[in-house]
Design a protein that fits this description.
Layout lengths: L1 H30 L1 H23 L21 H15 L1 H22 L11 H23 L15
Helix pairs in contact: 1-2, 1-3, 2-3, 3-4, 4-5
Keywords: Membrane, Signal, Transmembrane, Transmembrane helix
Pfam families: DMT_YdcZ
Protein name: EamA domain-containing protein
Length: 163
């Protein structure tokens, strides 16, 4: 039961990343990529600080006590946000999101297989390889179908109000 809940929670998290990418793509085209990224991290930091203050249980170690390489994970979100703000404007939310998931799947399989970053090694299998191939095929079809679509003449947001 808990595994199913965690999978559903992860699917929800992924859905929110797609919503975030679509919104940030629009915002980035109007105010700039880095301002959009700054807003994302500023609001995220504020909300996370409140969650820590009210809900985080006490731990035996602090951020200053852990191995320093573990702090590098904080830098990994910046390229994601910046790349998505740029990519969504040019290739659309679906293509950008599937491409990110493809990259996540590929890297996570390497981390699992080799036990990198102190993770338990989970050997590569033909099933995992098939999943990677299927996602690559999905990326190809989503990308090629979006290339063939004709752009709409006007979006609702482009229409001028009547006087």
């Amino acid at each position: 039961m808990i595994t199913t809940f965690m999978i559903l929670l992860a699917v929800f998290g992924g859905a929110m990343l797609s919503v975030q990418a679509a919104i940030n793509g629009q915002l980035g085209s109007q105010v700039g990529v880095f301002k959009s990224a700054f807003l994302t991290f500023s609001v995220g930091a504020l909300i996370t600080a409140l969650l820590i203050f009210y809900f985080e249980p006490k731990h035996s170690l602090t951020l200053l006590d852990v191995p320093k390489w573990q702090l590098l994970g904080a830098f990994c979100g910046v390229p994601y946000i910046v790349v998505m703000v740029l990519a969504v404007q040019r290739i659309g939310t679906a293509v950008a999101t599937v491409a990110v998931i493809f990259g996540q799947l590929l890297m996570s399989m390497l981390i699992d297989n080799f036990g990198w970053l102190n993770n338990e090694a989970l050997p590569f299998s033909i099933e995992r390889f098939a999943a990677l191939i299927c996602l690559g095929i999905a990326l190809y079809f989503i990308y090629s179908s979006s290339k063939t679509m004709q752009p709409k003449a006007e979006k609702v947001s482009d229409l001028k109000p009547l006087k």
